[in-house]
Amino acid sequence: MSIYRVIDKLEAYVREGTWMPLGYRIVSEERLIEFIEKMRATLPEEVGRAKVIATNKDRVIRDAQEKAQQIVSEAASAQQQLVDQSDIVRQARTTAEIILREAEEKARKVRAGADGYAAHVLAELEARLAAALGSVKKGQEALAPKPPPARGEAGGSLADAAAKSKRMAFDASHEAVELESV
Question: Distance between CA 14 and CA 34 in Å, rounded?
């Protein structure tokens, strides 16, 4: 189960709580803790996906390095065969150096791209988790007992807290979308 599904269920559960005077809702503490535990259990799955991305990055880099080594080996073999012809030998050395530089440049670009992608995925995951945690904290704050508002102060309702929490989650997801487009 994804963390988003757990968050959606938590939100639905809070909305289904029994209304009390002054805009409070009654929800089960055990049920809230159950949702939090489900979110914690889901997190390693998301982190595992990031590890898979990092593992693929290493494999691509290894493949590029092996190909570069193969190209260098082929160039060295060709050089040995053409030792008697000095112009061809010089040309082979030049070609081998160019191929080696190109292979190293490709490996560098692949490594940089993989690192960038992994960083992007982890940043997006961090933003989503921060939004989820913010929603949970806002819900907990809204459910915490509060003293009655003093004269002249407006009392905040759970609906206000939920609206603020949704706004924070929307803003966080909007920032993640902007990160993706960069």
Answer: 13
Q: Compute CA distances 24 → 65, 120, 146, whole Å.
A: 62, 39, 10
End-to-end CA distance of the chain: 29
- Residue of 70 and 173 predicted with greater confidence: 70
- The full DSSP string for 3-47 is HHHHHHHHHHHHHTSEE-GGG-EE--HHHHHHHHHHHHHHHHHHH
What type of residue sits at position 49? R
Count CB neighbours of 122 within 10 A: 15
For residues 35 and 13, the answer to whether their CB atoms sit within 8 Å is: yes
- Global pTM value: 0.31
Mean pLDDT: which of 83-97, 99-113, 132-146 is highest? 99-113
- The amino acid that residue 107 corresponds to is A
d(CA 123, CA 182): 12
The enclosing H or E element of 165 equals helix 158-181
What are the residue ranges spanned by the domains of the chain?
3-66+115-181
The amino acid present at 63, given as its one-letter code, is D
Show the CA angle centred on residue 144, arms to residues 140 and 146, nearest 5°: 145
Contact predicate 21/155, CB 8 Å? no
**Residues β-bridged to residue 19:** 25
